[in-house]
Amino acid sequence: MAAHTCYLRCAKMWNQVGVKVIHDAPHFIRGFCRRCVKVKFASCAGQSQRQHRKTSVVSYNIQTRGVSHPPWRILFFGSDDFAVESLKRLHAARGDGADSVLDSLEVVTLSSNVPVRKFAEQHELRVHEWPQVDSSGQFDVGVVVSFGCLLQESLINTFPYGILNVHPSLLPRWRGPAPVFHTILHGDKLTGVTIMQIRPKRFDVGPILNQVLYEVPEKSTADELGGSLAALGAQLLIDTLRNLPERIANRTEQAREGATFAPKINSCLSWLVWEEQTCDQIDRLYRAIGSRVHLRTIWMGRAIKLLDFVGKCNMPFTEISSFAAVPGSIHYQKDSNTLSVCCKDGWVGFKTVMLKKRLSAADFFNGYLHQSVLKKSQSQNSCQFQSYREKTGQNPKSLLWNQTIG
């Protein structure tokens, strides 16, 4: 009985240090004298207390490591050239001495041929294969830049400070995978970069930690704007990491008003609708997608690509007075070696076309249009481009404009 009473006293101590109690104590202590029982339980309890203190310290370090300041252990998720700019800046920040924001840097990417993997291997950064990523207790914060995959909530929760995203727009405007293209496509005068914390299940809806404005240069292409925003975003990321706990404490939720979606650029957007698109709209379309997808139209029942866009053309009245210009009408300007095409509110020019092969404006005119011009048959299809219409009747132009999120 005394031994059992002693056990209960020791068991109470075990409970205080979080050790599971063996409830069949009488069987456990059978064969021990009272003194041995006391010594046995005291010894075990002492070991348990020491183990508990050790475990508590480890747990505390994992969850609160660097609460007040960096350096951080970072796991980077990315794929393309836009992401490389942030990865490059993070890698350089490892050598900033006492002011370094990084303790360690490792990379998660998608395949063997993307720019992020090439940079990581070139600079001997450890690469994790997606989606087999085990980050439990190894990192303080994650960084996602142009990765393209939703991260599971279970993965996000392994980072004490969550996962940051560098997004090239002023969220909530242009959520989605192609914000830079849509910024140019819709003629935005002002854009920027947002640093936000990601949330599971939906892209680009998390709270904003940092944001900076950027004025879109006139006549900028998507490639040029993307390069500028990549550099700006990389620096903004470093600035955010320098005082991350404060940024998280002062984060703001995204406004519901003004949210728009920037879907991936589809090749159907490259089909021109001469009757409905203005000179300015065609100019923005070319600057947005021209480096990746050539503008296209229909000529004599065949698809033709329009290259080397020169913008709006000032057509002398004497050159167009001899025929009734309608959208799609073609006119060759010999002095500038430009193929001019009539659209909704004027004329736009191209230096090159792609039919069976690449042809200059002069070659296309001399080889295909000259005889029609001599016969003064501009009303015939040979001197006019036709707008492409899908069998569904959907106008490709309708896919170009703002998609507001309700």
UniProtKB/TrEMBL annotation:
<keyword id="KW-0496">Mitochondrion</keyword>
<dbReference type="InterPro" id="IPR005793">
    <property type="entry name" value="Formyl_trans_C"/>
</dbReference>
<feature type="domain" description="Formyl transferase C-terminal">
    <location>
        <begin position="265"/>
        <end position="368"/>
    </location>
</feature>
<dbReference type="GO" id="GO:0005739">
    <property type="term" value="C:mitochondrion"/>
</dbReference>
<dbReference type="InterPro" id="IPR041711">
    <property type="entry name" value="Met-tRNA-FMT_N"/>
</dbReference>
<keyword id="KW-0808">Transferase</keyword>
<comment type="function">
    <text>Methionyl-tRNA formyltransferase that formylates methionyl-tRNA in mitochondria and is crucial for translation initiation.</text>
</comment>
<protein>
    <recommendedName>
        <fullName>Methionyl-tRNA formyltransferase, mitochondrial</fullName>
        <ecNumber>2.1.2.9</ecNumber>
    </recommendedName>
</protein>
<dbReference type="Pfam" id="PF02911">
    <property type="entry name" value="Formyl_trans_C"/>
</dbReference>
<dbReference type="InterPro" id="IPR002376">
    <property type="entry name" value="Formyl_transf_N"/>
</dbReference>
<keyword id="KW-0648">Protein biosynthesis</keyword>
<dbReference type="InterPro" id="IPR005794">
    <property type="entry name" value="Fmt"/>
</dbReference>
<dbReference type="InterPro" id="IPR036477">
    <property type="entry name" value="Formyl_transf_N_sf"/>
</dbReference>
<dbReference type="Pfam" id="PF00551">
    <property type="entry name" value="Formyl_trans_N"/>
</dbReference>
<dbReference type="GO" id="GO:0004479">
    <property type="term" value="F:methionyl-tRNA formyltransferase activity"/>
</dbReference>
<feature type="domain" description="Formyl transferase N-terminal">
    <location>
        <begin position="126"/>
        <end position="240"/>
    </location>
</feature>
<comment type="similarity">
    <text>Belongs to the Fmt family.</text>
</comment>
<keyword id="KW-0809">Transit peptide</keyword>
